[in-house]
Design a protein that fits this description.
Blueprint lengths: L6 H15 L11 H8 L3 H13 L3 E4 L3 E4 L1 H14 L1 E6 L5 H16 L3 E6 L4 H12 L6 E3 L10 H8 L4 E3 L9 E5 L1 H14 L5 E5 L5 H15 L10 E3 L8 H14 L6 E4 L2 H13 L9 E6 L2 H5 L5 E4 L2 H16 L7 E4 L2 E3 L6 H6 L1
Parallel strand pairs: 3-4, 3-5, 5-6, 6-7, 7-13, 8-9, 8-10, 10-11, 11-12
Antiparallel strand pairs: 1-2, 12-14
Helix pairs in contact: 1-3, 2-3, 5-13, 8-9, 10-11
Length: about 375
């Protein structure tokens, strides 16, 4: 609507906005035509033409002798708007991931408290699937997205950039380098620091960092924290102690860790300790080592990252860096709800990780001596 639109059209648009926004509800009577002329400072003929336009659209209907009322079409529009306000989309790279499934569970629990319906989609780690699923959910009644995106560089993927430009409420729970994007997650660099510092304090000198995907931005952040932990404790970085692989397309971090573990077994000079990119990577390493008679932690100490449920339940329970998955999910939903309600500020929260000490690092054995 512009100032050049016919006057009756501008009056009609004003009334239409009140109906669709819910200020005028289904079955409610509009002010009299005389009152509308006073309200909009227009003639009676202008008001009549405006009402006729709304009647044609089905938004209002007249009842002889009683007045003009909001109609059933407006009721349908209001229902659709209500449905949109109660639905969000959640895009997960891998629903089998213990981390993301835990975050999703926390989102669902928080959403239920607010009568909000969660529609989630699994992308199997592929960018085309991610773009396709976002488009599919946009066609459904969702008002915003919580996204674990496949972002392996500093630039946003085109479909994410498009969401941003559309002003679609959006919160990342996977790391987003772009400072325009709302992000709720963990301080991954601090997590890497805590892992390395702990192993140094236990007396290990040859501490390796193992990652199945060297280009992953989380891997880079955790690696930098690992270097910080070594440097601040007087251990110079040793590139020979970094076992990094290009993503070979394997989606299962456990299988990737297992493959890397078998390669380490073939090397005659083992590290004394390993900080693994994730718990699943560490558990894959552990399987390869145990199959080849390498004891944990007596021969190699292990520290993972995430604190997924199986970390504490495995043979030789895994020392790890805990991500606050429940808190990430709750904060992601609360943040998205604020953005849907009109908050246009950027929210970026990096939660503190926590060191969880179990048997795999050797600390328990040292304490018993």
């Amino acid at each position: 609507m512009t100032v050049n639109d016919p006057l009756y059209h501008r009056v009609a648009e004003s009334i239409r906005e009140k109906i669709i926004s819910g200020k005028l509800k289904y079955g409610e009577r509009l002010p009299s035509q005389k009152d509308l002329t006073l309200q909009y400072h227009v003639s009676l003929i202008t008001v009549k033409r405006a009402l006729l336009e709304l009647v044609k659209d089905g938004l209002v209907h007249g009842q002889p002798g009683r007045g003009v009322f909001v109609g059933v079409v407006a009721h349908s529009v209001a229902l659709e708007k209500s449905a949109r306000s109660e639905s969000i989309g959640v895009i997960i790279t891998d629903l089998t991931s213990p981390f993301y499934s835990s975050v999703l569970r926390a989102v669902e629990l928080e959403a239920a408290k607010h009568n909000c319906f969660v529609i989630f989609s699994n992308t199997d780690h592929t960018v085309p699937n991610e773009a396709q699923q976002i488009e599919r959910l946009k066609s459904l009644p969702v008002r915003g997205f919580i996204v674990a995106s496949r972002q392996n560089n500093r630039m946003l993927q085109p479909h994410i950039e498009a969401l941003y430009k559309e002003a679609m409420p959006l919160v990342f729970v996977s790391y987003a380098h772009d400072k325009r994007i709302n992000y709720i997650g963990t301080d991954h660099r601090m997590g890497g620091y805590l892992a390395a510092e702990h192993l140094v304090h236990l007396g290990y000198k040859r501490i390796a960092f193992v990652t199945p995907d060297v280009d992953n931005p989380l891997s880079i952040a955790r690696y930098r924290g690992y270097l910080d932990g070594l440097a601040e404790n007087g251990l110079p970085p040793d590139k020979a102690q970094v076992v990094a692989a290009k993503n070979d397309g394997a989606l299962n971090r456990f299988e990737s860790g297992y493959k890397i573990g078998k390669k380490i077994v073939q090397n005659k000079k083992f590290p004394q300790a390993i900080f693994a990119f994730s718990d699943l990577t560490a558990l894959g390493l552990k399987r390869a080592f145990l199959e080849n008679g390498i004891r944990i932690p007596q021969d190699i100490a292990l520290v993972g990252f995430d604190d997924v449920p199986m970390a504490s339940q495995s043979i030789v329970p895994l020392t790890t860096i805990r991500q606050p998955m429940d808190q990430i999910g709750r904060l992601a939903f609360d943040t998205l709800r604020r953005k849907i309600d009109g908050d246009r500020s950027v929210t970026r929260i990096s939660l503190m990780p926590q060191l969880v000490v179990r048997q795999s690092c050797g600390a328990k054995a040292k304490d018993s001596l």
